[in-house]
Write a structure and sequence with these properties.
The complex is a heterodimer of chains A (99) and B (448). By secondary structure, chain A is α+β, with helices and mostly antiparallel strands. Helix content of chain A is 20%, strand content 26%. Classes of the chains: A alpha+beta (99), B alpha+beta (448).
């Protein structure tokens, strides 16, 4: 099963740090997200793009996780050479995670 | 007004500088609003605006200010809707004069337009050589520094509103502060009422990107369908005196307000949800609750706050480098192999000709430009080569696109649609400075 089957996501930028939310469609799937979508798994999934550590924040009341990826934006939105300097499309890579 | 008011209705008329104009007109006409807020100032925009101001002392504010004001000012004046915006960018005083002139021209006599200035902290920073988040110092950046502006809080906007301003125009201010100020002014919140200020920050955070909470930036066909995005309605926040919020939009407008759209925006650009640091409060969104209470009506409660840090974030804009880029497309059988051959040719050409570059990317749009080699690999029907490099001069940057363009007559078969660009890069770094470094000033212009 892909993460996209049970969750949706949005990515945001601040300097060279990306944040990517993972939100359960059904509240009952939140526990599965907590179990399967760990900071370690996300760090491995984004290894080719993010240089820094990954932190995970839990939001049980809205059934969501928030991932913060340091060094994920090619040096920062305002100077990166990347086509998607904001990392807006990183949410789609997140949802491609096999869980 | 004031304490007798049950809820305040605040509309978000723009989520960025270039945003659509009609949704704000729809909000002003049919939103039943008390306030209309336009958030139009991205991190780097103010540095570009400062460059414009250096060339022309009456320039340096948002290029769409006149168009937006002409579209909404008469309607807002008629419906008694006040406007708050950061479209002043690097020159709020000139923006206020321009807005006053538009009001006069449109017959809106007596309209009061306030400019909030004081966010420019370049002199303060230069005198102290503060360290920046990119590991450098202001002194090390030397003459390349263009601007430094602090994210100011709600207080000067509140002052402008209390002095009777109909329109308040700021430069750099914390985005949520644009929304918090009307709440503080109308409900009389104390500036150490951390819980309410925290909820106010949540209101501002949710509304500031406009269409991003009403179904924009959300649709994924078959998974998350949203109707009528071409007529997307922008959000209205109905806020109680305690700071609880219902997000909604004008009936009949496109898009949707659902628990899902609100949750995505709740976490947008957030790091630790329990510590969203603002000039006026350390807001805590970690126990927020989101519930659908009707069609296109979502209630948000549970926001909280703790005392502010006493520090402000300041953004420093500086001339960083130049970027040159070239693209060309290949299609049909073997498209990827020809595009890859083309990439290899450009790479070798740049080496052969000794083109000075600091950093390069060689990639294929449609194959690996966004996420590298992540994800499944299928043979694409089309592939677009992209070569991009950082250089020390504009002339060096132009070399990159020129070299890609030569693939027309010198590269693999069937390349088409070549495109090139070369640009100066104004980058932004940030610093933390004490609140005392900023002395905000409010000046009011009246349309005669």
């Amino acid at each position: 099963m892909k993460l996209r089957d049970i969750a949706h996501s949005r990515a945001g930028d601040k300097g060279d740090i990306a944040n990517i939310s993972v939100i359960a469609y059904a509240p009952g799937d939140y526990a599965l997200l907590v179990e399967r979508v760990t900071a370690e798994r996300v760090a491995a999934h984004f290894a080719a793009l993010a240089t820094g550590p990954v932190r995970r924040y839990e939001m049980p009341l809205i059934g969501a996780l928030n991932f913060v990826l340091e060094g994920a934006l090619g040096g920062g939105v305002t100077r990166a050479l990347r086509l998607d300097a904001h990392g807006k499309s990183l949410s789609s890579l997140m949802l491609d995670l096999e869980i | 007004m004031g304490s007798t008011m049950k809820t305040l209705r605040i509309g978000a008329g723009a989520g960025y500088s270039g945003d659509r104009i009609e949704p704000a007109v729809e909000l002003a006409e049919r939103g039943g609003l008390d306030y209309l807020v336009f958030e139009c100032l991205a991190e780097r925009t103010i540095a570009l605006a400062q460059q414009a101001r250096l060339r022309d002392p009456d320039a340096g504010f948002d290029p769409l200010l006149a168009a937006r004001m002409r579209a909404v000012l008469p309607i807002c004046a008629r419906n008694r809707v006040k406007i708050v915006t950061n479209m002043g960018a690097a020159n709020p005083a000139a923006a206020a004069r321009a807005t006053r002139d538009i009001a006069r021209e449109m017959g809106l006599r007596g309209l009061k337009v306030a400019a909030v200035t004081g966010d420019d902290v370049l002199d303060w920073l230069r005198a102290r050589d503060v360290g920046l988040d990119n590991g450098r110092t202001l002194a090390a950046l030397g003459d390349s520094v263009i601007s430094a502006n602090a994210y100011i809080g709600a207080a000067p906007i509140v002052e402008a509103l209390r002095r009777g301003a109909d329109v308040v125009i700021t430069g750099r201010a914390a985005d949520p502060a644009l929304f918090m100020a009307p709440l503080i002014a109308e409900f009389g919140w104390a500036m150490d009422d951390w819980g309410r200020l925290g909820r106010g920050a949540l209101v501002g955070h949710l509304l500031e990107c406009a269409g991003q909470i009403t179904g924009g930036y959300f649709a994924d066909p078959g998974f998350k369908d949203v109707a009528d995005l071409a007529r997307l309605g922008f959000p209205i926040g109905e806020v109680t005196p305690d700071g609880d919020l219902v997000v909604t939009k004008v009936e009949g407008s496109g898009g949707a307000v659902t628990a899902r759209t609100v949750k995505e925006q709740l976490l947008y650009e957030i790091h630790d949800p329990a510590a969203y640091l603002q000039p006026d409060v350390a807001a805590d969104f970690s126990r927020a609750r989101v519930e659908e209470i009707g069609r296109d009506r979502v209630r948000v409660t549970g926001g909280a706050g703790a005392p502010k840090s006493g520090l402000l974030k300041a953004s420093v804009g500086y001339l960083d480098s130049y970027i040159g880029e070239g693209q060309i497309s290949y299609a049909g059988p073997n498209a990827r192999a020809r595009a890859q051959l083309a990439l290899d040719i450009v790479r070798e050409r740049l080496a052969l000709t000794g083109a000075p570059v600091r950093e390069t990317r060689f990639e294929l749009i449609g194959v690996n430009a966004l996420h590298g080699e992540s994800g499944p690999r299928a043979e694409p029907y089309e592939a677009r080569l992209r070569v991009v490099a950082r250089t020390d001069s504009l002339a060096q940057a132009r070399r990159i696109g020129d070299e890609v363009e030569t693939l027309y007559t010198n590269g693999p078969a069937g390349g088409g649609g070549a495109w090139k660009s070369a640009r100066e890069v104004v980058a932004v770094a940030s610093a933390l400075i004490p609140v005392a470094a900023v002395r905000a000033v409010v000046a009011i212009e009246e349309a005669a």
